[in-house]
Each structure stands twice: as C-alpha cells, then as structure tokens.
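Next comes a concrete protein, fold included:
___
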Amino acid sequence: QRGPHLHLKFLRRGDACPVMNWYLVDWKPCSEFWKTHKTALKQFLADFTSETSIPVALHTVLHKPLRDHVQQYALILTRLSEAIGKSPDRELVTSAAKQYAKLQSFISQVLDEACLTKALWKSLGHKLTEWLCVPERRLLEDSKNLPVFASVGRTNRVLLFDDILVLIQVSRPWEEDKDRHTIHIVTPEEAFFLSAKEPRMKVIWQWKLNQAVRQALNGKRDFPLWGEAREGSEPPVHRCFKYVFRAEGRFKNAAYEGEWYWGKPHDSLVKWPPGYYSIIPDGELIPGFGICLVPLLSEDRYDCYKCHWCEGKMRGYGICEYGNETVYKGYFNDNLRQGFGILENPSVEQPFKYTGQWDNDKKNGYGVWDDKDRGERYIGIWQDDHRHGQGIVVTQSGVCYQRTFHVDKMVGSGILLLENDSIYEGNFTRDLTFVGKGKLTFSNGFTLEGTFSNKSGQGLQTQGILNTSSDQQDASITKVQLGLDEFPVEKRWQGIYDQFLGFLHSGCKEEMEESFTGFHIQTSRELRKSQEYLFCERGPEDVSGKIEDVLEELVQHQELESLQCYLQKAFKSSLHPLGKLLKALTFAFQATYSGIGANKHLLNMAQEEVKYYAKKIWELYQGLLHLALEQKGQPLAETEDGEKRCDLNAYRVILPLILPCFYPELFMLYMLYHEKEDDLYCQGIVDLSLFPDIKLLEVLDVQKHLWPLKDLTLTTNQRRSLVKDKCFLSATECLQKLITTVDPREKLEILQKTYEEIESTVSRVVERDYKLPMDDLLPLLMYVVSRARIQHLGAEIHLIRDLMDPTNEGGMYDFLLTALESCYEHIQKDMRLHQRETWHVARDP
C-alpha cells in the first residue's frame, strides 16, 4: 500500500529532468557532477554516446526503470489477486493493484506535462521564457491547443500553469460574442472573462482552472489524476494565501497574508513596506468594519481610516484621522464624505471645528464652523467648502451679525447686534466697522441714521440725523431673533435624518445596522471588540442593539407607560438606532448653541429646533414600529388627525425624555434672553426679603384672617413682628423644587403642588375647606414667590410656557402659570416704578 506513495514522492522531484534540457541554472551543480562522471553514467545506458544530453540520460536512468517496475508490480498484484481466490486478504491486494494502475496513469500524465512544458519554453521568446521558466512549473493547458480568449486588453494567448495563469497580449482587440461560453475569473486586482466557442472547451478549461487552484491550495497534485471521489470539482471561496499588490491604487506594494473571500482580502492585515497596516473587512464585498492606514509620500505620516466598508469603498459611518492632525467623524459614500459629519483640527496652530452637511467630500448645506483663532462661530449655508448664502456670525465678545455671503465674502447689507444692546442695520466690514448707509439704534432708544465712514486715524464719522424723541428702546428691537426665516427648522441637520431614513427604508437590515449606528456593534469578530470610538462613550446597555431585538421590543411596548420606559432606556443606549440619532442631534445642538453660540438672539432658533427634534424622533419611531408590525404581519393602528396627533405625542412622550440632553444650552439662552427682567425681579426679591413675615403679608395686602400666625413659633425674647421665613413654609419649599427638574410637565406639577400647599395652610388657619379665589391667591402666591427666591424665575416661566403640552392650555396648569407670571411681573413693575422715582428725584435740582 505504501509503494505508490513512495514512488509519487520520487516523481514529484524527478520529473523536472526532461523539462530542463536547456535550463541548467538551478541544476548546474548536478550537471557539472555528471559531466565529470560520464563513464559511470555510461554503465547504466546501453546506447549512451558522447552526444547524449545529461538530462535525457538521467531521465533514462531514473524514470524508465521506475515505469517498468510499476508496470511489473501492477501485473504481479493482479495475478496474486486472482491466485488468492476468496481469501480475506484479496481485497487488500486488489486495492494495491488499483493504486499501481492509477500510478501508471499518473506517471504518463506527469511526463506528458513535462514534455509539453519543455516544448513551450522552446517556442516562446527568450525574455518571456526567462521570466516564466522555473524548474517546478508545469503547463496544464494552452489556448493554442484548446482555443479560448480573454477579455483583458488585447490578449491573444492564454497559458494555464499549475501555479499561475498567463495572458499574452498582442495587437488583437477583444471582440464580444453573445454565442460564446464564458468563465468569470476574479483575481485580487482585477476581474475578466475567458471565452470559448464550444461548451466542451469551456468545461475542460473550467475543470483545469479549478484543479490548478485546488492543487495550489493543497500544496500537492491530485492523485489519482482526477482526484478522489470526495473532493469537489470547485475550490473553496474562502482561502488562505499570501499576495503582494502591484497595480496602481491604495494597496500598491502592500503584502497581504491571510483569508480571502471571492478573490478579496477577508478580515486580516495588509502590510506596506514602511510597516503600516490596514485591516480589511469581509472581502470588501460583504459590508463590514475595516481600518486602512495610507502612508503619505511627502511626509513620515499616514492617514488612518476606521470605517464601514462596502464593495471596497468607505460607505456609512467612519472616523478618519488624517496625517495633518485633523479628524473627521461622520458618514461616507464611495470614499467621499457625504451626509452629516464633524471635521476638527485640535492643534494649537490653527484650531477649527466644522459640524454639518457634506456633499461630494465638501462642505455643502447647513453647517456650523468654529474658528477658535478669531473667537467666532459661523452658523449658516455652505457651498463647495465656502460660506455661501445666508449666515450668522457669533463672536466671543457677545457681538453677532447676520449677513449674506458669497464665496466667503460678505455682500449687501445686514444686521449687527452689539453687546450693549445697540443695533446697526446696514453695511459693515468683517472687523465690524460701519461703512456706507445705515441706521444705528442705541440701547436707550435714540437712533442715528445716515452715512458712515471710518478714515484712518480719524475714527468713526457720520453724516445723518440723530433722533432723541424716544427715551426707551422698543423690546422687539432689543430682543430681535436671528435665523428663523433664513434657516427653516425642517431644513437644518437633514443629513442626520437622512441616514436614519436610509436605514429605515432598507428594512433595517442587519448588514446595514453597522453602517448607520457605527462600528461599536458587538459581533463575534475579535477585531470589533476593541473599538471604543463613536459619537458616544460605551457604557452598560439596558436594551439590545441587535435590530431584530429592537423591532421585537417595539411591538411589545406600545402602551404609553410601557413605551415611555422603553424609550428612556433606548435614548440612553449607544447601540439603539434612536439612541444614536439622539446623540448625533445632541452634538449638532451643542456645536451651535454652546460656548460662543450662547447668545440671546438665537433663543427662538434653539427652542424651535428642540421641538422639531421631538416631532421628528416620534415620526422615525413610528417608522420603526410600522416596519416591526409589517414584518410580523400585524396592521398599524390608524388614528384620526395624524399630524395633530403626532405633535401631541412629540410633546407628551418624546420631549420630556430628550429635553435633558439639550437643557443646559437651552436654559442658558433663556437666562440670557430674560437677563434684564430677572435682574429687576431679583432686586425686588431682595427688597421684599427685608420684611418680616407679618409685615410682608401686610404689604402684599393678604387678608388678616388668612395669616398663619400659629406657625410663628417664638424663641425667648423674640417678638412676633420680627419672625421671618416661617409662614407658608411648606409651599415655599415646594416651589423651590422648580429648579430641580427639566421637564415642563413636572415643573407644572410642582406649581400645582405649591398651590395645594397654600390652600391646605389657609384651610388649616380658617379651620374649614377653603377654595382660594383669584383675589386671595395672587397675594399669597406672591408671598411664597418672594420667600422661595428663585433666581431665574423669568427664564423658568418662559421655558415652561414655550415647551409645555398644548393640551394644558386653558386648564388648571395654564391658570397657575398665568398666576405665577402675574406675580413675577408685579415684582418687576414695582422695581421699575421705584427706579423711575429714584431717577426723577436725581434729576430734580
């Protein structure tokens, strides 16, 4: 049984002799040895002459006896099998005889291939032969013998060896023929077709190609000639081997050793000569995460692409760390930045940050640019990497202006809002110098309208009319809001919504999930377990990130209370699609309104944006739910007044859950917008806090039978008239909780609880249930407000009014909020009167 295998090993090493008739480079030591020992070699050859070549002589000495012996062994074993009869050993002998018969066929095939290869080397040109000829290489098929044509360039001849496929190009072009029978060939760097005129020729070429690949992967020839019965005719699509890329492209000169899938690298490292690496996703055909490091030729740096790949190109979410220290986090399409993305340069020399829309690898659409060198932020429209269209610029000093831009240059007139609340309408330069016709409105209400100029060394000059008829500025001018008409809320941050909609329209397929949510999705691949970078930090997840689990849970949590609990967890998860969406919106909001962007003239833009976020998230949630129900074959419940219902659910369900993400920036804008009113209110609170409880109740005209005098517990030598902060203490402590929550509904509940505490205290005083009429409520509520000392009450009131559920309008909550507003305004009014009286007294001689 071992005999055929021993002979095989000998054949695999010795069948190079006839091929190397002229090629003696590698065999030079062997050839020189036999040239000096021809006499010894002559003893083995009956017809040896001085003209007999060494390779032919060796073939005669080594191969002919072997073939004779194999033939004799096969004959002996056949006869032995017949002589044994029905003995148990007959099957073993018969099997050995068959193996030797196969070996005879194999020897003939090996020698035939060697002779064909030898003939080929003689027929080819010297340069081509020198490049192709190696001792171990064998020709398996030639298109001259079995015609086949290649679709690559001007290929005239196809040579199939046991280790390579060679296309020899001449001047004949490829001609497409629909009647031809084609074979699709996929290589690491290109794909092409082999075309045969007859089906028989295609079958033979396809079988030999598959055999050559299979034998190359196995590292040995098939034995028997046509392979074992259990071996498939096609090699596996998953393979392991090493390859060096030579064609022009991002992998040029890179070496890859590892798994391949359909001719493409599959989840392993690509190494460039300088030592840089690239981790390639699943064959670049299956979408997946990959890392690519591309050396920069001019510098000792490289660009690092950590992206989602599809068909060999960056597509979906990715992070790119460029060699110039800038970092891009956002979406790609066909290797180009496309959709929403953040580009940042954190270097000290030229720091900047862009958050916004990209198209065709350039800044296009709505975006925010932070120029940290100049200390200013641009909020507006971009076109081909230039500020182009309507834009707002906010500076670190508090100045902001709105202008039209054309290729980064300001054109036309605009509005300039100064830090002292003066407003200039007209033309001005980038360094905020007034030029040409314009109107300047001062903070005291005076106006100056005319022509402005600024000559060197002479300061600002003007020719115009100064109007001093007004001694108070119109509030509509003081609190002018920018960007509402120029940037409709539904057209801001479209790139964020488009990514979610694309994921939704694809049916939320699992292979698309990583492209949208980023590559921190947990999979079985070791490579992805180490990734920690995305819009959000990783943390303990309360909900599953797998899309099939997400859709299943959406169906299970449709009831309002259950839905709110589920969405609260989903919004906190970096793996959930809705959590990813909210995180991206949070980054966009912070990029616009935090830091330099905290300007009171942007309040309405921000407030409008938050409400639109809630509406849009509800719509996208509905899209996910519809898909989940559709996949389960369940109908989606239809509701009347769809758009109105959507707005209500956005306020009632979504807004309270997402508001904490935007509250710090949003409330800061409210505080800045109502800063003057809150200052007046705080001064009034300070004045009222000087009064003891009884005196304050008297000043506020609270009816004496409602005074809770029993609550004034006195210490030794303490007079009742001097006690402070004891009356209506429970109501005061309740109202102070207003600043501990961000949800407008919870703030209204606190206000209602405060009212109930006041009413409860009064009922205890009068010793019966007492329903407070408006005339009694306002003085008592003003007392509680003055004792609660809420610093930014105006900002709190207006935030509640702007963001509360519309269904609360006209109800109890609305009534109590109106009462609180009346108290706030009454305290301000008293302070204004006090200031005016003081001002007039100061003016009198």
About this structure: Residues 545 and 575 are 5 Å apart (CA to CA). The chain is about 40% helix and 20% strand. Confidence is low (pLDDT under 50) at residues 12-28, 282-286, 519-540, 839-845.
